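A student in our group prepared the protein record below, which I am reviewing. This is what I was given:
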Amino acid sequence: MRILILGATGRTGHLLLEEALKNGHNVNLLVRDKSKIVRNSNLISVYEGTPTSKDALIKAMQGCDAIMSTLNISRTSDFPWAKLRTQTNFLSATMKNIIDAANELPIKHIIITTAWGVCETKKDIPAWFRWLIDHSNIAYPYRDHEVQEGLLKNSTLNWTIIRPVGLTNSLKEKRIIVSINNNPKPALTIGRQSVARFMSNVLLDESYLKKCPTISEK
């Protein structure tokens, strides 16, 4: 399968790229800086640009069967009140472009990561984290995740929206817990490596089409 990965230079995205290449997929990338990408025989095309540019996105999507995105609105640090590095509608602007372009191309599946606490899952997260979302710059990605989820759900495309719990950099392979409608109740953390592995598996698993699994691990 040939896929376009968005966010491949990020902390989760580069692990997703490794998983996709390890599993033998042919990969296109759209990145801001080509110099950050190590070439691989299955890495078909690396395009430089931003997904908020529809022209750049359409070029990168050519020949692809699926799109996988780990894009997020980033801050200058992990401090909740750190300044934003990304425009506040980055995710929803990108999703509008993806949907418009995908309707004209043979894209079979769009898989994105958002977060536990987006949309109806906000009631399920710890109270202290709800407070942070409401009172810090964490609010911006959560709001835009909600908008992009709505756009994708209302499209005619096949999609899977994956909502990881709190992300860690653990490389240990643990059992992934998949929760739908808060059942079973998620754990509080998951390693980025596990997120990448789950995304790669979902690519070939139609049981998650048009579903929003929350993933955690023990």
Strands lie at 2-6, 26-31, 43-48, 66-69, 109-113, 159-164, 166-168, 176-179, 189-191, 214-217.
